[in-house]
Amino acid sequence: MSAYLIFGLLIALMLTGMPISIALGLTVLTFLFTMTEVPLHAVALKLFTGIERFEIMAIPFFILAGSFLTRGGVARRMIDFATSLVGHWHGGLALAGVVACALFASVCGSSPATVVAIGSIILPAMQKQGFPKKFGAGVIATSGALGILMLPSIVKVIYAVSTNTSIGALFVAGVVPGLVLTCMLGATTWYLARKNNYPRLPRASWSARFKAFRESIWGLFLVVVVIGGIYSGLFTATEAAAMSAVYAFFIAVYVYKDMTLKDVPRSLLESANLSAMLLYIITNAVLFSFLMTSEHIPQMMAQWLLDKGLGQIAFLLMVNVLLLLAGNVMEPSSIVLIMAPILFPVAMKLGIDPIHFGIMVVVNMEIGLCHPPVGLNLYVASGITRMGITELTVAVWPWLLTMLVFLVLATYWPALSLWLPKALGMM
Amino acid sequence: MTAVRRSGRLILRALDRLEEWLIASLMAAATGLIFVAVVHRYAAALPILVVQDWLLRINLSWAQELCIYMFIWMAKFGAAYGVRTGIHVGVDVLINRLPDRLRAKIIVFGLLAGALFTGVIGTLGAEFVWDVAHTQEVSADLELPMWIVYLAIPCGSYLMCFRFLQVTWWFVRTGALPHHEIAKVEGLDEAGDDLHPADLRHQVKS
Asked: Which helix (H) or strand (E) holds A332?
């Protein structure tokens, strides 16, 4: 009974368009004031202790690192490197865009940031070369979604925190699926470009390739800092995130010199703004799951789902549909924060691996980012290209279909995500 | 009257700057702190004569705790700043399809709900801080009095409440909401609309 009330109130409040964090918080308050005897005192304490965990602090650090990487010229050099590698194939710059997104995604933990970083440079260049606007926007808006799948990722940190899974293993588990998705998106791009005969670039010489690689090595080295650091046990995930923020600052200001010290405060302020928003949602989501736990709702829902006699296959299908639907109205962090505490226990009971489940959730979030009405990547791409959302929706569909095929792969082939962390002995 | 209004505006602007300065500094300080703590941990293991002794004498075990507290302070005040920049997104799919008048009413309801929530939380937080201040509770590593640490809840929440009221006031007067533009990159924003895509259907009448 109380489950219906809680969710009904939450959905009603969310539909008024108020911030999700506020809707979560108000639901909890209303319920506490009227229905239960949980002391209100506990609420204030929860508001503080809810985010009093060092793992969560990886989020602001990764956001800050992403801001330095975006502004600091790392993206530009990665694009040059990617172009020198694949620019002469069908699809030229578009294909290079996919590869550059994958490279940038392996150092940056956010999808919209990847779209901004790669898209704002490569989209104008593509238009100049004669690609239709639609094609470029479609490629970059979807490839940018790799940002949360490859190595570090804010969504993965949130999933790890709300389910107590290993952050390091989740990071590494995204590598193979990320590479597969890159190839699939690249293949779609290649096929479309060949069919429509889009411009290609002259083949770059090996010396030019090497030069571009050397230029971008500073940015690529971040992979070693983050993953090497976590894997070797040199630092925790949060420390790795802080190190990568300092490292990104250093190369942006002193190595590439694309940023001056004067630009730093703005990056700090913007990252603080974004991090505070995410931390605020997390706080209220913790409050919300505190309420749910005290009403035994997760256990009840888990029991209900188990009583339905769903097998692994049917359950995973249901989760996919549920997450894709949620992707229509909310952004990834909120979805993971609200859904993970409910779905995760059931997944565990059915014997699904927590890392595999996490990667599957992330792929769902990626798809949610790329389609309207709340696809953040689309809004970012529309901001860069000045295209309308409706037009963009049509533009992304070939790649969106590719991603749906990939989702089936990631859902029903656990080895895809589990092989690498297992081989490295991380799980 | 104008003098009052001008000084009021001045105070508001000072508050804006203070808020921005505070959260940006906390971000920078926390990053620097963790970096130094990690470097210190490994540097102290290097067998360099005098330096090692000196490094070993510095104890940075409190770094993690301080970092958490700094980020919580940043989160509370940053959330208030976020109201002003419009970064707290909600599900606006439905209300953007409604006729303008009704949509405006629901938006005002949402903003006031935000003010109500943060106001209540601020009050609960203040009571809580009051109680803690009468205990001897200190933090684990830094041994800071906890009530100072918890002060972030009432201060941040009341500020956020004020920001919600401010934005409501702006919205009622101008019909515009602050919108966070994530795609804004220097050199790209040519003159033109900076309307959020969700707002294109509801052009602001100026």
From this structure: helix A332-349
B206, two tokens = 């100026």
Q: Are A33 and B126 in contact (CB under 8 A)?
A: no
A123/chain B closest Cα distance in angstroms: 11
Q: How confident is the model at residue A399 (pLDDT cuts 50, 70, 90)?
A: very high
Is B110's CB within 8 Å of A14's CB? no
Cβ separation B81–A242 shorter than 8 A:
no
- Helix and strand totals (H; E) in chain A: 22, 0
Q: Residue B131's pLDDT is what? A: 86
Contact B63, B33 (CB under 8 A): yes
What is the Cα–Cα distance from A387 to B195, expressed in whole angstroms?
A: 12
Which residues have a Cβ under 8 Å from the Cβ of B17 and sit 6 or more positions away? none
Which one of B182, B189, B196 makes the best mutation probe of the A interface by having the most chain A beta carbons within 10 Å?
A: B182
pLDDT band at B27 (very low <50, low <70, confident <90, very high): very high
Chain B partners within 8 Å of A245 (Cβ) = 31
What residue has token string 């033109």? B192
The runs of H, that is alpha helices, within A106-236 are 111-129, 133-143, 154-163, 167-173, 175-196, 206-223, 229-231
Tokens for A251, please give them.
């190369």
Q: Please give the residue that has the higher pLDDT: either A195 or A375.
A: A195
CB atoms inside a 10 Å sphere around CB A273: 23
In angstroms, the CA B206 to CA B203 distance is 9
Q: How many cross-chain Cβ pairs, A to B, lie less than 8 Å apart?
A: 213
Residues of A with Cβ-Cβ distance to B75 under 8 angstroms: 51, 275-276, 279-280, 283
Cα–Cα distance measured from residue A365 to residue A146, given in angstroms and rounded to the nearest whole number: 11
Query: A40: nearest CA in chain B?
Result: B124
Q: Which of A17, A57, A277 lies nearest to residue B95, judging by beta carbons?
A: A17
DSSP one-letter code for B205: P
Report the chain A residue with the minimal C-alpha distance to residue B83: A277
Q: What spatial distance separates the first Cα and last Cα of chain A, rounded to whole Å?
A: 39
Q: Is A151 exposed, middle or buried (0-12, 13-18, 19+ CB in 10 A)?
A: buried
pLDDT higher at A170 or B58:
A170
Compute the half-sphere exposure of residue A389: CA atoms within 13 Å on the CB side of its CA.
20
pTM of the model: 0.88
A90 dihedral zone (left: phi>0; alpha: psi -120 to 50; beta):
beta
Contacts B38 to A, Cβ<8 Å = 235, 239, 242-243
- Measured between beta carbons, which residues in chain A are less than 8 angstroms from residue B185? 70, 116, 120, 384
Phi then psi dihedrals of residue A82, to 5 deg: -65, -40
For residue A213, give both structure tokens: 């690689």
Residues of B in contact with A279 (CB under 8 A): 71-72, 74-75, 78-79
